[in-house]
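Lab intake sheet, docking and co-folding queue.

SAMPLE TYPE: protein with bound small molecule
LIGAND NAME: zinc ion
LIGAND FORMAT: SMILES
REQUESTED OUTPUT: full 3D complex as structure tokens
PRIORITY: normal
SUBMITTED BY: R.K., bench team

The fields below were copied directly from the construct record.
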Amino acid sequence: MKFQDYYEVLGVSRDAGEDEIKKAYTRLALKWHPDRHQGASRADAEAKFKQINEAKEVLLDPVKRRKYDQFGRHWEHGQDFTPPPGARARPVAPEEFAAVFGEGGFSDFFASMFGEDVLGRFGSSRAARAARARRGHDAHAELRLGIGQAIAGGKRSFELSTTASCPSCGGAGTLDDDHVCPACAGLGSVRKRQTVEVTLPHAIRDGMKLRLRGLGDPDDDGGEAGDLYLTLVLESDDTYRRRGPDIEADLPLAPWEALEGGPVEIRTLDGTATLNVPPDTASGARLRMRGLGLERDGRRGDFYAVVRLALPETLSERQKQLIREMKGGMVRGGARKA
Ligand SMILES: [Zn+2]
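RESULT FIELD (auto-filled):
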């Protein structure tokens, strides 16, 4: 396990007083609160926030701080660390700590140094919590889906990272006695990987929420499990492209279809739509179908079918002959040298 330099984490000196530590903690906790970070930087913020809370838990508790100062003096942050003999009568192994609090809260270093104190205290707060909770916690996750997948629908399996209220502190981030919750390190929520089977509904909308009953966290006391709420996010795929509120997709047309025009069936989020191709349509033309795009602020974007001239996969000898007879004129554009 790695040594944690809690003074370095909070940016204070080894002889910092309680006020100075509190001040540094408040400033850093505000800066790194995960709610203030979006996208990829959120995971970094979460890790930082946990570290800051762990440092606070040790440095603002006189007993823990004294023990830490006694054994931690000669180590550097991130250095490989083995608990010194005599650190405690019975060091708590990280596995034992994780069995009670789950993974992802306080570090292994914390578990080995202070685990025993925390394990002892936890019994009473767990009982108090169990008395409060009547059902398991709801969990939340984002389900990213290719537009083509959404259109195809059906039953599918997805591996998701779900976020649920922390079962140890009930989402408060602290235990009854104002100590930082070791299971979530003050975050109030825990993440886990979960595989779920989802039957995709018809007419999927971007941002739509699905509620999967009983797929949240099970209730420890045998009561009803929580629900899992999925927020659907539609993404571009090989066929359909997101363009702001609009969707764009290629529409291959045979030369005779482009020449004569006529109705073509298109697969959209709303099912099959009929597009009337005008006569003399050129390759590259963008044919619009109003209101069949994505939903934005209560309004629907449009669907653009981009015409590409194509030939059937197999051609008869006669068709090949007719194409040869088309010879004449010059095709221009793209990377082609004029
Ligand atoms: Zn917690």
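REVIEWER NOTE: Residues 240-326 form a domain with the HSP40/DNAj peptide-binding domain fold (CATH 2.60.260.20).
SIGN-OFF: pending second check by T.M.
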